[in-house]
Amino acid sequence: MRLLIVHHTASPATHELFDAVRRGAREVPEVEVASRAALQATATDVFAADGILLGTPANIGYMSGALKHFFDGVYYPCLEETRRLPYGLYVHGNSDTTGAVAAVESIASGLGWTPVARPVVVLGPPSKPDLDACWELGGTLAATIAP
């Protein structure tokens, strides 16, 4: 089983969240964890995944342009092929993440992907509870797809 993490780690804070998600996912030994930067991830990567974790900063009230670019490239190729794909989301912002979360959830819903947990939303510098929540998100998604 393969878990794909598609991320945009534009800041030290988003990198901390990415590391925590990846560590949590790697706690499930039956699951291979692959990660791709959002600007490099392709539909082929999604087709090879049994679950997907998405990570983005909230930029001007929206997901990053990099994650939007990912969705633009995979939406139609993956539309029928990846229905019911389990997914999770983490978002970092300095003030408001509402638009970013809503946009990702809307696109994932359009793709027919299934959320396995509530999005992890972090405002400001990540705290230990924030990092723990990301670790748990990674572990939960990996456990969901484990054989």
Structural notes for this entry:
- The protein is α/β, with parallel strands linked by helices and 147 residues long.
- It is 44% helix and 25% strand.
- The protein has five helices and seven strands.
- It has helices at 12-25, 43-47, 65-78, 98-111, 128-145, and strands at 2-7, 32-37, 51-59, 62-63, 86-93, 114-115, 120-123.
- Strands 1, 2, 3, 4, 5, 6 and 7 form a seven-stranded mixed β-sheet that branches.
- Strand 1, helix 1 (12-25) and strand 2 (32-37) form a beta-alpha-beta unit.
- Helix 1 (12-25) crosses helix 5.
- The termini are close together.
Task: Report the helical percentage.
Answer: 40-55%
SSE string, helices as H and strands as E? EHEHEEHEHEEH
Biggest pleated sheet: 7 strands, mixed
Structural class: alpha/beta
Number of helices: 5
Terminal Cα span: 7 Å
Tell me briefly what this model is.
By secondary structure, the chain is an alpha/beta fold. It contains 5 helices and 7 strands; from the N terminus they run βαβαββαβαββα. 44% of the residues lie in helices and 25% in strands.
List key phrases describing it.
single chain, 147 residues, 7-stranded mixed sheet, 5 helices, 25% strand
Topology (SSEs and partners):
Layout: E1 2-7, H1 12-25, E2 32-37, H2 43-47, E3 51-59, E4 62-63, H3 65-78, E5 86-93, H4 98-111, E6 114-115, E7 120-123, H5 128-145
Parallel strand pairs: 1-2, 1-3, 3-5, 5-6, 5-7
Antiparallel strand pairs: 3-4
